[in-house]
Design a protein that fits this description.
Shape: globular
CATH class: Alpha Beta
CATH architecture: 2-Layer Sandwich
Strand content: 25-35%
Number of helices: 4
Structural class: alpha/beta
Distance between the termini: 20 Å
Length: 149
Amino acid sequence: METYGSVMRAFAPGVVGRGGEPVAIVSLVGQVDMYLAPELMQRIRAALEEDAKSIVFDLTAASFIDSTTLGSLVSAHKQLQARGGAIGVVCPDPKMARIFSITGLDRKFPVEAKLGDLLAVLRAPIGSKMPLTGTHDIPSPASGRGAVW
């Protein structure tokens, strides 16, 4: 049986976004649903309070996300967009990535299979047309299930 977990956020040393600012990375692990939404929103607020211009949501180790998770990502997108920032999603699972396609969210913010590719998109000048490649080359720091790191 898979368990629910917690949410963890960090600024990744040496990982920078557009303009060289640090990127906050939120890794989601296991089943991420309405029970974790308050914790996820708390991590998003903390990143915003620390003036993050970019937040990467890493779904590499997530096994399930629901509409409340999507709502939290949309909320972060709107808040960062108003400040000239951006979010992006790392999602190597094609079935889970399809959720972003079906809902049209992949047209609001980048969804990539590899962190390196996502960071390239986030570093691109605003308004540039970079192709989304769909690869993931840096593993999630989480190795277990049921947590948001």
